[in-house]
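Supplementary notes for students who missed Thursday's class. We covered one full example, reproduced here. Read the sequence, then the structure, then the short commentary at the end.
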Amino acid sequence: MSRVHIRDIQYMLHLSDAQIAFICELASTSDRQFHIAYVAINGKLVCYATNEYFLGTAALSLNRFHQYSIHAEVKALCKYRARPRREPTTHAAPGGTVDLYVLKISKMGFIGQSAPCVDCTRHLLKMWNAFRIRQVIHSTMNGLEVLKKKSMDARLALLTARATEVGTSRGDDD
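Structure (token representation):
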């Protein structure tokens, strides 16, 4: 099985050559796994965000800092909500539905698995109707996968069940 380069699926992402070049440049300079999410309304990119990492307060018992993050898909929707309302692409526009793209890209431009985690899945489902999300499109090792609300609900149930099984097998429920 060959790896898929972001340029191989460019037409599916509705991005220009300049936008693809920009994303590849960001990925090539990243010191971590690079995730980017962007909001598109009626096929037009409105805003984007990348994963953001920061340190929290010192954990006294461990004598070290804990790292926290905000994932790109949630951050992109927060940026979308905060944008000036004078823009012509508001989510209240008739027929204006949101497509949320979530991509993982290597330094060389190859895509990887970027399905939303359990916490992001919960957040996306809570925001689904308010943001008029039509679908979440995420990269996989083989291309793109489209998730509608029903499949997001099923995904959350599966992820929650797995987390419960792991917690129970460790004895965390005592």
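Commentary. Residues 149-170 form the longest helix (22 residues). Helices lie at 10-13, 17-29, 72-82, 118-127, 149-170. If anything here is unclear, bring it to office hours.
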